[in-house]
Amino acid sequence: MSTPSLRSILIGEFFGTFLLLVIGNGVVASVNLLNKQADWIVITTAWGLAVALAVFVSARLSGGHLNPAVTLAMATRGEIGWSAVLPYWFAQLAGAFCGAVVIYADYSSAFAAFEQANHIVRGTLVDGKLAGPADGGAGIFATYPKYDNLMGNLFSEFLGTALLLFGVRAVTDKHNAAPRMNLEPVLIGVVVWAIGLSIGGLTGYAINPARDLGPRLASCVLGWGTAVFRSHDYYFWVPLVAPMIGGIFGIHVYDLAIHRQLPPAEEPSQA
Predict the structure, then answer these.
(1) What is the DSSP string of 100-118?
(2) Degrees (nearest 5) of the Cα angle 219, 226, 210?
(3) Per-residue pLDDT tens for 170-185?
(4) What are the structural domains, with CATH classification, of the chain?
């Protein structure tokens, strides 16, 4: 089987991450700007479905990483070359940025009505935080923490991404009782859904540096300015750093604790 070219890989990562953000940011906009409820269940479900669909789109071309933390973790296992890491990251970041811009264009009237109804001046900080509901509208794009607890927020993003990579390895490990390949994206989406429902409320569960930084850059360009980086005591670096470390931790814990105990792939699994 031929290996896809780097161009094909980057196209897969761009459009996969683009789709992820169009659906993910779109549901957050729908809930917050249009008051389409039931809040967290709707948001977490849509993000899970977004991941599943985005992996379906990109898996054959690029492996469906869609996430710099996944790419870095895969590189540490030798599954991709280190020379491909930066191109993957660039494609993921570009896809996330463009997805956020498209959602802003689609919801531009809703943003204007939301800001008027809540007396929001875009990019205004009050007590070091973006003022207004949904972090002044910028929370439609990127994540902002519920509490100003640096170590707690770092741990939550670390834990969420560790669980993500642990779960993804379990779903895709051919030595395990793995599903058929056409079910893997669905189950990866279920993993993301479960993480969101369980621990996602504290930080908005970025668990993906591109998913957070791309839309944050978009919101900066679209009128919120540098406030999106300064808000919550410069929180923006937390969903960049913690997922990178958490992803490496999660994938290697799986390899050490589970994968090495498994029988060869050709042996039948226990019931």
Answers:
(1) HHHHHHHTHHHHHHHHHHT
(2) 50
(3) 998 887 766 666 789 9
(4) 6-261 (1.20.1080.10)
**What pTM was computed for the model?**
0.93
Q: Which two tokens stand for residue 203?
A: 């930080």
Confidence of residue 270 (pLDDT cuts 50, 70, 90): low
Residues 6+ apart with CB under 8 A from 120: 114, 131, 132, 133, 136, 137
Task: Report phi then psi at 8, rounded to 5.
Answer: -65, -40
Token pair 């895709």: residue: 172
Bridge partners, 83 (sequence order): none
C-beta of residue 134 within 8 angstroms of C-beta of residue 219: no
Q: What token pair was written down for 209?
A: 């540096």
| DSSP conformational letter for 79 | S
Q: What is the 3-state secondary structure (H, E, C) of 43-65?
A: HHHHHHHHHHHHHHHHHHHHCCC
